[in-house]
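User: I'll paste a sequence; please echo it back and then give the predicted structure.

Assistant: Echoing your sequence first, then the prediction.
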Amino acid sequence: MIPRSGWISHGVGRHDVESVADHTFSTSILALGLADMEARNGRRVDIERVLRMALLHDLAEGLTFDISKSYLEYLGKRGEAIKRQVELSAWKHIVESVRSKSIRAEYAKLQSEFNAEATLESEIVHAADKLDILFQIIAYLRKGYPKRMLSDLWTSTNRSLARFEIPSVNSTRKIAVRLYNAAG
């Protein structure tokens, strides 16, 4: 199990820490739900593409582990660039191991689309990734972790979700806010 290190740096006990696999699954389920809601509201969305991106979005962490933002602070301004480079290198290593050139090309295209965050599908996956953090915070609060421990992460993640102009994302974020406020 590869733990999500951001939870550790926020003080969540090792026995309670969400794994990268748990996060990928939750993000995928959230992305599917968001894509389905958008499609039902008449938006043109490629749901298969959303699911593929969601399933692959953190695949590189299988080799690099999860490098949290709080760990990157020790590297200063170079931290984010180093993380991107390490994960890109791991991603390329994984994709190069796929025998089929057409599948390799499709995976590379998906990763590029995800990184560019310029399509509705990639925005849905990015939003689902962030919504998973909010719902995981709520789960930790329900386990008894104090709100003050996770409030900075809640605030920054919730704020970053506000930029999405996707109705299903906004309605799901409002549900998360209600649950967070009810959690104490």
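The radius of gyration is 17 Å. The chain has a mean pLDDT of 90.
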